[in-house]
Amino acid sequence: MKNNFIIFLILISLTLSFSSCNTLKYVSDNELLLTKNAVFVNTKKNVNTEITDYIVQRPNQLVLGIPFPLYFYNIGNKNFETDFEKWKSENPNSYKFTTNIFSEKQTRGVRDFKYRTHQWFLNNGEPPVIFDAKKAIQTVENLTQHYYNEGYFNVNVEYEEHKIKNKKVAINYLINTDKPYTLDTISTAIESAVLDSIYNLYKEKSELKTGKQFKLSFFIDEQNRITNLFRNSGIYRFNKNAITFEADSTKTNYSSDITLIINDSIASVPFKIQKIKDVNIYTDYAYNTKDEPIKTKVEYNGYSFLAIDNLKYNPKLLLNSVFIQPNDIYKDETRELTRKNLRRLNNFRSVDIKYEETEDDMLNASIFLTPLKKYSIGFNTELTHSNIRQLGVSGKLSFLNRNIFKGAEILKFSVQGSFLDSKDAADQSSLLNAWEIGSDISLEIPRFFIPFKLKSIIPKNMAPSTTLTLGTSLQKNIGLDKQKFTGIIDYTWESSKNKKHSFQIVNAQFIKNLNVSSYFNIYKSEFNEISSIASTYFNENIETTGVINFIDTNIDSNFESSNPTEYRIIQNIKNRYNIITEDVLVPISAYTFTYNNSENYKDNDFSFFRARLVSSGNLTTLLSNERDENGTKTLLKTPIAQYIRTDLEYKKFWNVSLENVIAFRSFLGIAIPYKNSSSIPFSRSYFIGGPNDLRAWKIYDLGPGSTKSGLEYNVGNLKFISSLEYRFKVINSIKGALFIDAGNIWDINNSSVVSSDAKFNGFSSLKDIAVGTGFGIRYDLSFILLRLDIGFKTYEPYLDNGKKWFQHVNFTNNVYNFGISYPF
Fold first, then answer.
1. Residue 150 in 3-state DSSP?
2. What is d(CA 448, CA 451) in angstroms, rounded to the nearest whole number?
3. Which of 27, 132, 187, 726 qualifies as a FRET site for 238, CA 20 to 30 Å off?
């Protein structure tokens, strides 16, 4: 029914409006429910979220403008026990009647169940926020201190109450800032000649400059800058407590003179530059064996490697992750860089670095490494069920070997297999008549494994690493029984904290289809299309195995001239058949750049950008002299895919308020075949739809362009998608989302057998962008997030009646998307 969704929204609105009277359930006559806070700065309403962070008492949380957690809380009865005992004493006959029917024990059970139910609502809801004048006064003090820290020394803050009927109140905080103070003359008083000389070398980088506004944050930044400067210039004993500032605010022109004061000692010990004398690396440290004698000691390049047992690490290779050097001055940054890179090796449970001062005022550095277990084995299994696969059993066995070549390398090996009950299998006599087996082996090397040196371009502080991967899989009675072989050589490094690079010099995949004859048994909608045409125009009843012979025999130029639409349908299906069934070698090289300024996994306010450039088949086709009957270059009698592909992805997250986030994602991808290829391999083509994409359509269900083929899959070589999502907290671990997705795929091969509706024809094709809207419910378990998103087809570019908006926005045509973690 077309208006189901609108009716649903109306019912929700009516339900919530009737519930609004319930907001005051636990607000007594002498109390006021806080419904709104507003901040006015110099008579203008504040829009800066940083200012609202200083408000101590906030109204009840709103979900889309409605205090849903408060409604949830009010469903519970805080006085259930008292009310029950009161009812019991006032209605003894009713209570006795109940116990006679259910027994005393069962009655107590019902009572306890009701009590726990009420407690659940109370514990998971949010109690009413009762206005507290003390907290308003504390907010005034917070705001005053904030503006004072910003240089507004004459600021005035007050609050006023606006009482609303039905025991509600709104609070306005009124701020008059006056003019801010600025920095005037800046002088220094540095007692130590050593510190003074270091300071003057970098004086121009000071955060304090004449004319800048007087802000506390500038002084904190300057204090941190100076501390980092000294501690990275050999002053091991220095700490920020040695830095103080004096400000003269007696001037009447809203300016202040500043004096930077740095003491010359801590606890009467003068500051001086200290160097590293010895660096000792304990490679098998453990707390329970820390007192045992050292049995192995190896000296290498001025470093001492020590072990209670035999030394299990190659000193030369392990030093790729150590940046503390003998005879170098002490630096905080080398200490942190060493700790970070040693942890990145994933060979050590803990990394601890300590310094000890010697009698000659030098430092001995000790690095304590506690290794993880050298070997680990994992196994997991699962049962699956779907309409296609009635029963499935899968399992994976993995093996890991750390430090296999004594350079902190990690070898991973896994074998996985699945046994299924497939409807497509020829043999239906056995229960599990289909299977898939695969194996992968990878070697992670924490350095560049390459025959020449790149240290001058990519030094070791950029954490260069190499990953070598080999994999294979084989299917039986699953789809077309694809057999795959994969080989990857991947180099990665980090040019800065936020910028990462990956260069896959080789990422080769060989794909061979062993069950091509079953194609039209699997993709039945395509067979039905051709079967209908054969029956209508040729009066033939064809079998699935005879489809290609029928096309080659009957579908010619004469049929095209008389039936152009049907001709395109058949040629399109044949083209897809050729793509899917093609045995292909895909030898690519790829470079990926990633920018991510997220501080940690909890950060909800950051940007992300990734660009990937792929080139396939250029070198392989250049070296190959083999050709098939179509003139296509091959290797091992397999066609070589030749194309270029570019993917651009941008994501931005805004933390609107507490646990309310706006998330934006946009993706553009283009893949262009040339020379040796007329199309992109199916495994490297673009598709759209699914739980992490355009959520109002199922995977492969949309496009290309404004076509509506009705086939099992749809792919293209141009893709655009953009999503905007509002994420908010509902109650405790339950979170919600509203989203809008827009995108599509197109064909840009300019093939004559592809309909014009499927091609990208410049800006005019933007009308083919499909739009889906919806909402989601998420359950956050901290370590994992379970997600259900419901998508509605809002704009369908393939509809022919001219009405493409809101034609199927209802609960009969929606798409349910189950997923783990956020969609982007």
1. coil
2. 9
3. 187
User: Any idea what the Cα angle at residue 163 is, between residues 157 and 164, rounded to 5°?
Assistant: 135
What gap in Å lies between CA 772 and CA 305, rounded to an integer? 61
CA quadruple 763, 764, 767, 770: dihedral, nearest 10: -60
Alpha-carbon gap, residue 221 to 149, rounded angstroms: 13
pLDDT of residue 711: 67
Same domain, residue pair 343 and 260: no
Report which of residues 314 and 572 the model is more confident about.
314
Q: Tell me the per-residue pLDDT of 490-504, one tens digit each, with 9 for 90 and over.
A: 999 999 999 999 999
Contact 525, 486 (CB under 8 A): no
DSSP state of 551: H
Quick one: DSSP state of residue 759? B
Three-state DSSP at 340 gives helix
d(C-alpha 377, C-alpha 357), whole Å: 44
3-state class percentages of the chain: helix first, strand second, coil last, to nearest 5: 25, 40, 35
Element (H, E) at 272: none
**Is there a domain that residue 333 lies in?**
yes
- CA 340 to chain CA centroid, nearest Å: 22
Residue 726 maps to a domain? no
Give the C-alpha separation, 511 to 475, whole Å: 12
Residue at 553 is within a domain: yes
* Total count of domains within the chain: 3
Beta pairing, strands 168-176 & 33-41: parallel
- Residue 277 identity (one-letter amino acid): K
With 90 as the cut, is the pLDDT of residue 346 above it? yes
Whether the Cβ atoms of residue 610 and residue 594 lie closer than 8 Å to each other:
yes
The span from the CA of 95 to the CA of 85, in Å, is 10
For residues 192 and 259, state if they share a domain: yes
* Triad 408, 414, 415: Cα angle to 5°: 165
SS3 state at 1 = coil
pLDDT digits (tens, 9 = 90+) for 539-579: 999 988 889 999 989 998 889 899 988 888 888 788 778 87
Q: Measure the N-to-C terminal CA separation of the chain; round to a whole number of Å.
A: 32
Out of 218, 235, 270, pick the residue that ends a domain. Answer: 270
Give a yes or no: residue 361 inside a domain: yes
Cα–Cα distance for residue pair 794/805, rounded to 1 Å: 6
Cβ(242)–Cβ(261) below 8 Å: no
* Of the listed ranges 65-79, 177-191, 622-636, 799-813, the one predicted with least confidence: 799-813
The tally of CA atoms less than 13 A away on the side-chain side of residue 820 is 4
- Number of C-alpha atoms within 13 angstroms, CB side, residue 49? 7
- CA atoms of 372 and 348, how far apart (whole Å): 5
Rounded to an integer, the average pLDDT of 310-314 is 95
Centroid of chain to Cα 236: 39
- Residue in 621, 644, 520, 601 with CA at minimum distance from that of residue 822: 601
